[in-house]
Design goal:
seven-stranded mixed β-sheet, single chain, 7 strands, globular, alpha/beta
């Protein structure tokens, strides 16, 4: 009788209930904490139940959902784009930073600091319609490969995080990207890569203008940064755009600290996770001293705030979506 009762229960239970929602995560404490949190907030009879309308999850992109070394992948696009534009019109290379970018000389650009980076982004990201810019991004993604992994850039997404996004949506979460990366850049690939549609992407955006071209209204990208979606800008943009405090936030650097801090300070069940880049063999190992993805406050303060520090080397059995 007990066997028949168990068989009946199994027959009435969807197969997904018995499958592993995070197969590329090892059986670590990090994975267990995530699953326990999701179980708690989706159990309608439990004290920690959260209605689907309030199951908001936000994630950084660079270093959290895909790679960010040796420099942000969008900046590699900016250098490649500038080189392409300079072939058509060499006169646009009006400074040492722009000349270095067109030659692929990353070290010279980094020595120029924030001003050099902004100069390269302005020159490579403006002067076309939004649609024209996004066509250029799509072509770059289709034809370019990372200089160290030789993978297409959109295959350098992290398979464990793609699984986490899918798992959360299966449990009626609404997932958003909240990134310092460019809004128009991320909207090109995020739906295919992560299942996150354009309207659920928050990012840095440049100045734009409304113009009439040959009788057709267009939005054109202009020089200048209108809003930087980083650090304290992240919770500000979430409140402004989403209108709700998330209950789940994921990041990897101190640029995400304020987003996780604000998310987990709310009432009721909350979860913050930080991806700690510890895997020098399959990816890159970096944290406190890195100019890209620097992580200090998150390591020092995060555990006391209840955040889960995901150890990439030990917690993930697989890194990239495009490679086993």
């Amino acid at each position: 009788m007990k066997f028949l009762r168990l068989a009946a229960i199994m027959a009435a239970t969807p197969f997904a209930a018995f499958s592993d929602p995070l197969p590329s995560w090892t059986d670590s404490a990090s994975k267990q904490q995530i699953i326990e949190f999701v179980d708690a907030v989706t159990n309608p009879s439990g004290e920690s139940y959260v209605t689907p309308a309030d199951r908001i999850a936000v994630f950084d992109n660079d270093g959290t959902l895909w790679a960010e070394q040796p420099v942000y992948l969008q900046f590699i696009f900016a250098m490649d784009r500038l080189a392409e534009l300079a072939e058509q019109d060499p006169s646009i290379l009006t400074s040492p930073a722009l000349k270095a970018a067109a030659e692929g000389d990353l070290q010279t650009i980094l020595q120029g600091g924030h001003e050099a980076l902004i100069e390269v982004v302005n020159a490579s990201h403006s002067g076309s319609s939004v649609e024209g810019f996004q066509d250029a991004v799509a072509t770059w993604l289709e034809t370019s490969r990372h200089p160290e992994t030789n993978l297409p850039y959109d295959q350098m997404t992290y398979q464990p995080m793609v699984e986490l996004l899918r798992y959360l949506r299966d449990e009626d979460f609404k997932t958003y990207i909240v990134s310092g990366g460019g809004l128009h850049f991320m909207r090109v690939f995020a739906e295919d890569a992560y299942g996150i549609p354009p309207e659920q992407i928050l990012g840095t955006y440049g100045e734009t203008t409304y113009d009439i071209s040959d009788g057709v209204p267009v939005i054109n990208k202009a020089p200048g940064i209108a809003f930087i979606d980083d650090k304290e800008g992240k919770p500000i943009n979430i409140e402004r755009t989403i209108g709700k405090r998330p209950i789940f936030a994921g990041g990897n650097s101190d640029g995400d600290f304020a987003m996780l801090e604000w998310t987990t300070a709310g009432d009721g069940p909350r979860m913050g996770i930080l991806i700690h880049h510890t895997d020098a063999n399959r990816e890159w190992a970096y944290d406190r001293e890195s100019p890209i993805g620097r992580l200090v406050d998150g390591l020092d303060k995060g555990p006391d705030m209840g955040w889960v520090i995901v150890d990439m080397a030990n917690d993930w059995s697989r890194i990239y979506t495009g490679a086993n």
